[in-house]
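Q: I'm a student working through a structural biology exercise. My instructor gave each of us a protein and asked us to get a predicted structure, then write a short paragraph describing it. Mine is TerC family protein. I'm not confident about reading structure output yet, so if you can add a plain explanation after the tokens, that would really help. Here is the sequence I was given:
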Amino acid sequence: MTACGEALTNVRAPLARAAGFLVMSNGSLHAAGEGSPMDFAFLVIDWLGKPVWMWLGFLTVVVALLVFDLGVLHRENREIEVRESLVLSSMYIALGLAFGGFVWWQLGSESGLNYLTGFVVEKTLALDNVFVIALIFSFFAVPRKYQHRVLFWGILGVIVLRAIMIGLGATLVSQFSWVLYVFAAFLIITGIKMLWIGEKEPDIGNNPIVGFLRRRFNVTDQHHGEAFFVRKANPVTGQLTWFMTPLFMALVMVEIADVIFAVDSVPAIFAITTDPFIVYTSNIFAILGLRALYFALAAMIHRFRYLKPALAIVLIFIGSKIFVADLLGLEKFPATLSLSITFAIIGSGVVWSLIKTRPTAPFAGKMKNVQIDGE
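A: Happy to help. First, here is the predicted structure for TerC family protein. I'll explain a few features afterward.
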């Protein structure tokens, strides 16, 4: 038996027997009581550094979660209450951590720690995106009961866009090792900019993408239920024409916001690990939970006033550790130390924010005047 066959047998033998299959010495499977073998050798072929079965297993879990979300939990458009939002978010976080446990079990402690660090960093960075999404929903007056629809279809675009960006990043890092130092320098500069310069509130009304869509396509200012497009008479020609609704415009802007957000988050995770599997899975699991958490966070994001400075320090740290490891002659910065420092910085930012923005403490948060229900 080849090494590949031995590995395949070791990985799937217990599961195959439990499912009623017989594992043959040549690595193929026989259905119990049948004589025709089923060759699953392709499952152990490496793709982007990991066996195909791991990628297929991850994608199966993600698809199942999305089907369960849309087909069971949210079959009808309705408002999502804060309590439901917190419960769903807790479920997604638990699943993300459980997958991290699987990574630890299959790939070892270092991969498990890198996954957890990436998951925490991505989840925390994504919180900053909640403010932008709330502004988008407010600008386009998206009714609260349709906001989940936009976020759901938005996540499908995120899954594809992140795959493309991470695939390109992994290719660049594998071909040109110096690209990792470019990512690190970019993170340090971004962190310093966030600390000292700050960020301007997005002006969605003057956004060039919004202007382009309104100039080049038919766009209606009226909502038409859950529809992204509506067919109605063109006011100029009188002919029936397809129009984009504000719901679709909001979807486009949410996707654009994620692309901009990924410019920071993708280099950050590559500075933690260059393993495409760890990078992609930690990204997607973190983002999946963000959709559920949005409805609870949007109303209280102003309380995390010190989270952005904490994120800036995390970016500076993640970028700096690449150079520190080289200066100290280390092959890699210790994963345990990296996770501990990241937790400490983010935890301090969250705790200090909650202390300083207690209901009794005066605070004029920038979310104060943002309406999240669009009604």
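A: Here are two points you could use in your paragraph. Strands lie at 21-23, 29-31, 37-38, 46-47, 50-51, 229-233, 240-244. Residues 1-44 form one domain. It's a good idea to check both against the output above yourself.
Q: Great, thank you!
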